[in-house]
């Protein structure tokens, strides 16, 4: 059996929050039910039961505990965050025409695109019902803004991902939308529901924002150099889908004329041939794009750790700090 110190930070956090997470899972199962449309719980259960880490709802619970909350509504908010996350996954897999997620067939493959989109819509609606039940307009404001930002980030990615003029600033805007917005909302509402001082709520927002950015940069990096067995993705999926992630943006910015023509053919025009992925990876190594992207991820993880400074001393605070380290340890 592993000692506490040898466990991964999210596993330690899951153990600390076990009773809360059980309540969250019960609430999720109750609210994903549908009397009239049995396909809704079928599709939802396929994703919810797929063995994800439940990181986002745990962040909400952790933030509430860190700020001394003793009421019931952190459970509602954690379930809300998980429903929003699950809804975006259902929609993303349709947009990306994905066939696999977390090593399993996607809902759109097992059922169809219409079911995935409509069940995603249902979960968004359920999430709003849950957040309204907290009776906090501020919570509703934060999570509804996050939902809009997520959708905005996905639409921005549609136009930016295949445009070689896309800069790292635009990439970060996409990442803040598609990933960091829900991380920061998850931590922020935990502080808000606890009635924490504004400085602490801001610190929780900053932590979630930086953690979410680090998390996505690492995901994009692992797409080009990760272990498919660990990531559940094939190497180069983003390249094949013509997504300009940070490593590719760095390589394009440093490309000579011949290399730029390669990126124009494979990314902008989508004419990919055998051997192109290997050549793309070679160019990333040539221009130190992978090394420099890893450094960016570590910088954002450090920002997340530093953001925790104004928050009270607590076991959970140490776990949140360790979590920021763990996110970037995946690229060693």
What does the model show?
The chain is mainly alpha-helical and 332 residues long. It is 73% helix and 1% strand. The chain contains 17 helices and 2 strands. Helix 13 (246-253) packs across helix 16. The model has no long low-confidence stretch (mean pLDDT 87).
Quick rundown:
The protein has 332 residues and is mainly alpha-helical. The protein has helices at 9-16, 18-31, 39-48, 55-66, 73-95, 107-110, 113-132, 137-160, 168-193, 198-225, 228-231, 237-240, 246-253, 257-268, 276-286, 289-307, 315-329; strands spanning 100-101, 104-105. It contains 17 helices and two strands.
Topology:
Blueprint: H1 9-16, H2 18-31, H3 39-48, H4 55-66, H5 73-95, E1 100-101, E2 104-105, H6 107-110, H7 113-132, H8 137-160, H9 168-193, H10 198-225, H11 228-231, H12 237-240, H13 246-253, H14 257-268, H15 276-286, H16 289-307, H17 315-329
Antiparallel strand pairs: 1-2
Helix pairs in contact: 1-17, 2-5, 3-7, 4-5, 4-9, 4-17, 5-7, 5-8, 5-9, 8-9, 9-10, 10-16, 13-15, 13-16, 16-17
Keywords: Magnesium, Metal-binding, Transferase
EC number: 2.5.1.90
Cofactor: Mg(2+)
Key features of this structure:
332 residues, mainly alpha, two-stranded antiparallel ribbon, 17 helices, 73% helix
């Amino acid at each position: 059996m592993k000692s506490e110190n040898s466990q991964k930070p999210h596993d330690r956090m899951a153990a600390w929050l076990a009773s809360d997470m059980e309540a969250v899972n019960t609430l999720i199962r109750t609210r994903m039910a549908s009397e009239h449309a049995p396909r809704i719980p079928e599709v939802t259960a396929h994703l919810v039961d797929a063995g994800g880490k439940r990181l986002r709802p745990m962040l909400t619970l952790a933030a509430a505990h860190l700020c001394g909350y003793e009421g019931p509504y952190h459970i509602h908010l954690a379930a809300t965050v998980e429903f929003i996350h699950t809804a975006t996954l259902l929609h993303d897999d349709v947009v990306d025409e994905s066939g696999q997620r977390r090593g399993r067939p996607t809902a759109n493959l097992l059922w169809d695109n219409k079911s995935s989109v409509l069940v995603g819509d249902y979960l968004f609606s359920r999430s709003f019902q849950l957040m309204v039940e907290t009776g906090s307009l501020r919570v509703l404001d934060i999570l509804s803004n996050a939902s809009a930002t997520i959708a905005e980030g996905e639409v921005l990615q549609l136009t930016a991902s295949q445009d070689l003029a896309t800069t790292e600033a635009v990439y970060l805007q996409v990442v803040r939308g598609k990933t960091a917005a829900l991380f920061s909302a998850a931590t922020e509402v935990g502080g808000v529901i606890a009635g924490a001082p504004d400085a602490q709520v801001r610190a929780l927002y900053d932590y979630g924002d930086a953690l979410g950015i680090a998390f996505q940069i690492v995901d994009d990096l692992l797409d080009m150099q990760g272990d498919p067995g660990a990531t559940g993705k094939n190497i180069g999926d983003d390249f094949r889908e013509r997504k300009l992630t940070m490593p590719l943006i760095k390589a394009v910015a440093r490309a000579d004329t011949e290399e730029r023509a390669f990126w124009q053919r494979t990314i902008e025009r989508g004419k990919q041939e055998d051997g192109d992925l290997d050549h793309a990876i070679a160019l990333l190594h040539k221009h130190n794009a992978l090394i420099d992207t890893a450094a960016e991820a570590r910088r954002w993880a450090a920002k997340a750790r530093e953001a925790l400074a104004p928050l009270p001393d607590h076991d959970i605070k140490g776990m949140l700090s360790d979590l920021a380290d763990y996110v970037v340890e995946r690229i060693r």
